[in-house]
Amino acid sequence: MSKQFDVVVIGAGPGGYIAAIRAAQLGMNVACIDEAQNAQGGAAPGGTCTNVGCIPSKALLQSSEHFEHAQLHFDEHGISTGKVAIDVSKMIARKDAIVKQNNDGILYLFKKNKVTFFHGRGAFSKAVEGGYEIQVTGKNAETLVAKQVIVATGSNARPLPGVEFDEQQILSNDGALAVNAVPKKLGVIGSGVIGLEMGSVWRRLGADVTVLEGMPTFLAAVDEQVAKEAKKAFDKQGLKIELGVKIGDIKKSKKGVTVAYTNAKGEAVNLAVDKLIVSIGRVPNTNGLNAEAVGLQLDERGAIVVNDLCQTNLPGVWAVGDVVRGPMLAHKAEEEGVAVAERMAGQHGHVNFNTIPWVIYTSPEIAWVGRTEQQLKADGVKYKAGSFPFLANGRARALGDTTGFVKFLADAATDEILGVHMVGPMVSELISEAVVAMEFKASAEDIARICHAHPSLSEATKEAALAVDKRTLNF
């Protein structure tokens, strides 16, 4: 016998679990289905972000940063440690424990908000009177009927054509987070977020890391000035980044992996590594959804086609997050999930794509919101720019990390903030002030006039805003 719900959410990643909770808060009877499981076979809600993405990568980045600080920087603070060693298995166990805490936290939130959770794979079965039938397969098979459905099935790592992930030698982000010993030589294909973050983790722990990027420019989506500063820092750290390469044959053996490629000069190179991380983007995950059973429209990439409100071509069926258009970011998925739940309730949920922040959690961190300087030039927008280096910031000096700067871009006529770009210490936290400012359509002058705590890294934000009008006080 089928179980009846107002809303069934397929997928419990950031978009799905947040949509389910918000719909329940608004008085709907909600179910959420997710098939992810932990090593013990238990439910592991949270999607890619919690299980093999945002959360575990930050745990490893933190551990590796502590290790590097102990090796290279404690001495300048007067701290003597002797020989420093890394226990990779213990580091991975800590990461796994943090992931489980997040999994358990989501299950608790479901219980708190009276969301019924089903551990298994959810798929469309057929349209029925007043809604849709959803089959749950797994240990405990169920048949659900929903008046409305939210698809939030996320994305999968994109493999190189003809080179499948084995998660032992050729790794996706999943395998890159579970390496049980520091490889002597590590190759990374793709210098995006995942490639740079995972490359940074293993470089800090002692691996010889080479990153191969097909694009001729580094971080093409990032403000050019920021990308150059970041590249300079990575080069100094010993992260080898080759741009403009063309990947050829990739061969596995007992000894490791060999990557044949042509470099930017047209020279043939063979790179021998112990392990290879492939991070060339992600693809929408509609595997096993049985979209054809109900006529759910997909595009040529396999993404679910939606309008500006996240409505699909089917009445009462919505989709959010990585499985639809737009940036594949956990926080974008969350905002879409909330907006859809509120639209279902007759409210006016809203997502402003122009103020979605982006962050790369390397060292230095990279963060931005709004348009880059190259985009403004291409669009013919007249603008003013101002920047301030962390070298002149007292808190950054005290931290011992003065790499980078904050940069403001403002409309030349109105002074409205059009973009804010940062590279440096803890800019993942600083960027939120810029997001708030842009949501309220603030001017650079508004930020320049706000009192910031001293000493704090946020003073660099104030000073960069002052720099738009060429009146910095500390540089």
Automatic annotation (TrEMBL):
<dbReference type="GO" id="GO:0050660">
    <property type="term" value="F:flavin adenine dinucleotide binding"/>
</dbReference>
<feature type="binding site">
    <location>
        <begin position="153"/>
        <end position="155"/>
    </location>
    <ligand>
        <name>FAD</name>
    </ligand>
</feature>
<dbReference type="GO" id="GO:0004148">
    <property type="term" value="F:dihydrolipoyl dehydrogenase (NADH) activity"/>
</dbReference>
<dbReference type="InterPro" id="IPR001100">
    <property type="entry name" value="Pyr_nuc-diS_OxRdtase"/>
</dbReference>
<comment type="similarity">
    <text>Belongs to the class-I pyridine nucleotide-disulfide oxidoreductase family.</text>
</comment>
<dbReference type="InterPro" id="IPR016156">
    <property type="entry name" value="FAD/NAD-linked_Rdtase_dimer_sf"/>
</dbReference>
<keyword id="KW-0676">Redox-active center</keyword>
<feature type="domain" description="FAD/NAD(P)-binding">
    <location>
        <begin position="5"/>
        <end position="337"/>
    </location>
</feature>
<dbReference type="GO" id="GO:0005737">
    <property type="term" value="C:cytoplasm"/>
</dbReference>
<feature type="active site" description="Proton acceptor">
    <location>
        <position position="454"/>
    </location>
</feature>
<feature type="binding site">
    <location>
        <position position="281"/>
    </location>
    <ligand>
        <name>NAD(+)</name>
    </ligand>
</feature>
<feature type="binding site">
    <location>
        <position position="322"/>
    </location>
    <ligand>
        <name>FAD</name>
    </ligand>
</feature>
<protein>
    <recommendedName>
        <fullName>Dihydrolipoyl dehydrogenase</fullName>
        <ecNumber>1.8.1.4</ecNumber>
    </recommendedName>
</protein>
<dbReference type="GO" id="GO:0006103">
    <property type="term" value="P:2-oxoglutarate metabolic process"/>
</dbReference>
<dbReference type="Pfam" id="PF02852">
    <property type="entry name" value="Pyr_redox_dim"/>
</dbReference>
<feature type="binding site">
    <location>
        <begin position="190"/>
        <end position="197"/>
    </location>
    <ligand>
        <name>NAD(+)</name>
    </ligand>
</feature>
<feature type="binding site">
    <location>
        <begin position="328"/>
        <end position="331"/>
    </location>
    <ligand>
        <name>FAD</name>
    </ligand>
</feature>
<keyword id="KW-0285">Flavoprotein</keyword>
<dbReference type="InterPro" id="IPR050151">
    <property type="entry name" value="Class-I_Pyr_Nuc-Dis_Oxidored"/>
</dbReference>
<dbReference type="InterPro" id="IPR006258">
    <property type="entry name" value="Lipoamide_DH"/>
</dbReference>
<feature type="disulfide bond" description="Redox-active">
    <location>
        <begin position="49"/>
        <end position="54"/>
    </location>
</feature>
<dbReference type="InterPro" id="IPR036188">
    <property type="entry name" value="FAD/NAD-bd_sf"/>
</dbReference>
<dbReference type="InterPro" id="IPR023753">
    <property type="entry name" value="FAD/NAD-binding_dom"/>
</dbReference>
<keyword id="KW-0520">NAD</keyword>
<feature type="domain" description="Pyridine nucleotide-disulphide oxidoreductase dimerisation">
    <location>
        <begin position="356"/>
        <end position="465"/>
    </location>
</feature>
<keyword id="KW-0963">Cytoplasm</keyword>
<dbReference type="Pfam" id="PF07992">
    <property type="entry name" value="Pyr_redox_2"/>
</dbReference>
<keyword id="KW-0560">Oxidoreductase</keyword>
<feature type="binding site">
    <location>
        <position position="58"/>
    </location>
    <ligand>
        <name>FAD</name>
    </ligand>
</feature>
<keyword id="KW-0547">Nucleotide-binding</keyword>
<feature type="binding site">
    <location>
        <position position="122"/>
    </location>
    <ligand>
        <name>FAD</name>
    </ligand>
</feature>
<dbReference type="InterPro" id="IPR004099">
    <property type="entry name" value="Pyr_nucl-diS_OxRdtase_dimer"/>
</dbReference>
<keyword id="KW-0274">FAD</keyword>
<feature type="binding site">
    <location>
        <position position="213"/>
    </location>
    <ligand>
        <name>NAD(+)</name>
    </ligand>
</feature>
